[in-house]
């Protein structure tokens, strides 16, 4: 925990943004009978009857020192979805950053193994033919 607090205490550096990533699964519902109308001294309320429409996974990335956040939705919550979220953060959200400092929890899908399963590793050297 102290290591994470030390990372959060770093000064803002746009070349090395500190980005926190987490996700949650949310149930998708509708209220077929609509809302209950506003009455004197009572705010609008939703009826307790609802229809379930599956679930969605919500990825949230936050850069606290820049006041920046990004939300992406996926159908599932897998290692490959997590790897794709990291690709989006690096290539779409922070394409010019020298390095992105990533903070995640220790969920089993949050590991370097997800990147190896999702993407081909780049060679350490390039060969040229004469």
Give an overview in words.
It contains 3 helices and 6 strands, in the order αβββββαβα. With 130 residues, the chain is α+β, with helices and mostly antiparallel strands. Strands 5-4-1-6 form a 4-stranded mixed β-sheet. The chain has a two-stranded antiparallel ribbon with strand order 2-3. Strand 4 and strand 5 form a beta hairpin. It is elongated and about 75 Å long. It starts with a helix and ends in a 12-residue tail after the last helix.
How do the helices and strands line up, and which of them pair or pack?
Elements: H1 2-8, E1 18-30, E2 35-36, E3 45-46, E4 51-63, E5 68-74, H2 79-93, E6 101-103, H3 112-118
Parallel strand pairs: 1-6
Antiparallel strand pairs: 1-4, 2-3, 4-5
How would you summarize what this structure contains?
With 130 residues, the protein is an alpha+beta fold. It has helices at 2-8, 79-93, 112-118, and strands at residues 18-30, 35-36, 45-46, 51-63, 68-74, 101-103.
Beta-strand residue fraction: 25-35%
In angstroms, what is the radius of gyration?
21 Å
Distance between the termini: 53 Å
Helix content: 10-25%
So what's the overall shape?
A: elongated
**Lateral strand order in the biggest sheet:** 5-4-1-6
How many alpha or pi helices?
A: 3
**Biggest pleated sheet:** 4 strands, mixed
The helix-strand sequence is HEEEEEHEH
Structural class: alpha+beta
E-strand count: 6
Question: Would you identify the regions where 5 or more consecutive residues have pLDDT less than 50?
Answer: none
Tell me, rounded to a whole number, the average pLDDT.
89
